[in-house]
């Protein structure tokens, strides 16, 4: 029987099976952690160079279940989760959840995606299939509000049932659900039908929309997996293909590549934690200062969570974690005496802190300077500059000077 055929439960096992030897023999490791004995992995030859570099760095660390490589308020992925993803094991619920959260963030914040497509988190279908009415109401409120249901043209709902990940897609205009499964089985089709009936019954009973049209289920002919633990990989790629409006092309021979790429993505992930909001909403102390309309440059101060912010010929020192104004706004030359008589006294166009403590690079037009900013005092001094950017930064010669004669 294929490894991914129906089986009971999806809970994480205390002891997991992994591949961790050059000859591919199976070994068992517990959750105390281990350092991989090999830097090889199935998708190494198929991933991009930068992805392989990220993964090789990752493989030098200890794999355990209580150190996280990706985390947000709602979900977390441990080193062990990522290692299992990379080496061909069964994807944890947390890995699936993380990819759904990442994708939803991209849909909500990027113009590259259609915001009329919505992806729910995997816990929604699980609550319906388990028949927990209290949890159903909670998950519906979190995942598919009435407004979201009416606004979206397509809703993608991951399902894990009988140990298998599959997907249903509601296309509202067509009054149909589409079912995507990398293993064709009447068991998974029956689970999809069970979920759909409960989902539509909840909407009819709770949202006051009246009797809804019957929504049929169409099984989509999609590529099938081999006797592997790749159902989660297939489902993630089904979702990506629908959201990106491209054909589904994954095959069972591609899974090692997708595992490597999905794993690397966890190390490069960026997401909006708060906002977008106006500067004045995030930092109310800037109201009425001119800084609320935009800033020109900033660099990290030597204390944690503090930064210098610049606009025009003025600057301020703030704490951005517990938003408060520490100093300013005041003239740049009042706080940075070394900049008097330089082009920077009237403004700074870009800046960043050096890796050397208390040092920062400043840019304006085609000029730059490296300064020691003397935290807590006015003993700052110029280390080098002001001078032309390109002789010291030759890699920028092809882009500077730009049409604005410098940097943004």
From TrEMBL:
A family per Pfam: Peptidase_C48
SUPFAM superfamilies: Cysteine proteinases, Hemopexin-like domain
Top-level taxon of origin: Eukaryota
Claim: Hydrolase is one of the keywords in the record: yes
Keyword annotations from UniProtKB, A to Z: Hydrolase, Protease, Thiol protease
Hemopexin repeats: 292-339, 345-396
Matches recorded under InterPro entries: Hemopexin-like_dom_sf (IPR036375), Hemopexin-like_repeat (IPR018487), Nep1/2-like (IPR044613), Papain-like_cys_pep_sf (IPR038765), Peptidase_C48_C (IPR003653)
Transmembrane segments: none
Residue ranges annotated for the Ubiquitin-like protease family profile domain, each copy included: 75-242
GO molecular function, one term: cysteine-type peptidase activity
GO BP term, pick one: proteolysis
Family statement drawn from the similarity comment of this UniProt entry: Belongs to the peptidase C48 family.
Protein name: Ubiquitin-like protease family profile domain-containing protein
Origin organism lineage: Eukaryota, Viridiplantae, Streptophyta, Embryophyta, Tracheophyta
């Amino acid at each position: 029987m294929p490894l991914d055929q129906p089986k009971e439960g999806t809970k994480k096992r205390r002891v997991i099976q992994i591949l961790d030897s050059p000859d591919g023999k199976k070994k068992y490791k517990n959750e105390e952690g281990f350092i991989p004995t090999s830097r090889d992995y199935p998708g190494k030859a198929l991933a991009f160079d930068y992805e392989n570099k990220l993964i090789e760095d990752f493989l030098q660390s200890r794999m355990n279940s209580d150190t996280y490589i990706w985390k947000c308020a709602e979900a977390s992925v441990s080193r062990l989760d990522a290692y299992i993803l990379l080496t061909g094991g069964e994807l944890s619920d947390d890995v699936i959840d993380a990819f759904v959260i990442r994708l939803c963030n991209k849909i909500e914040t990027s113009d590259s995606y259609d915001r009329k497509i919505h992806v729910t988190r995997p816990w929604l279908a699980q609550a319906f299939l388990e028949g927990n009415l209290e949890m159903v109401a909670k998950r519906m409120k979190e995942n598919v509000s009435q407004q979201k249901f009416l606004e979206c043209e397509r809703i993608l709902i991951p399902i894990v049932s009988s140990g298998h990940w599959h997907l249903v897609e509601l296309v509202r205009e067509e009054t149909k659900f589409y079912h995507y499964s990398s293993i064709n089985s009447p068991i998974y089709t029956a689970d999809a039908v069970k979920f759909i009936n409960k989902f539509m019954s909840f909407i009819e009973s709770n949202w006051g929309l009246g009797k809804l049209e019957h929504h049929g289920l169409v099984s989509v002919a999609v590529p099938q997996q081999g006797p592997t633990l790749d159902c989660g990989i297939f489902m993630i790629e089904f979702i990506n293909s629908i959201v990106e409006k491209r054909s589904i092309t994954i095959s069972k021979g591609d899974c090692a590549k997708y595992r490597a790429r999905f794993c690397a993505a966890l190390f490069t992930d960026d997401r909006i934690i708060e906002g977008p909001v106006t500067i004045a909403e995030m930092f109310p102390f800037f109201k009425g200062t001119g800084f609320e309309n935009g800033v020109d440059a900033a660099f990290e101060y030597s204390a944690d969570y503090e930064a210098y912010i610049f606009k025009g010929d003025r600057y301020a020192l703030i704490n951005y974690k517990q938003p408060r104004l520490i100093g300013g706004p005041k003239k740049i030359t009042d706080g940075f005496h070394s900049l008097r008589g330089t082009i920077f006294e009237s403004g700074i166009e870009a800046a960043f802190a050096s890796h050397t403590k208390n040092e920062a690079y400043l840019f304006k037009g085609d000029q730059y300077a490296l300064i020691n900013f003397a935290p807590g005092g006015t003993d700052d001094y110029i280390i080098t500059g002001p001078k032309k950017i390109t002789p010291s930064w030759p890699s920028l010669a092809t882009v500077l000077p730009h049409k604005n004669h410098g940097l943004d």
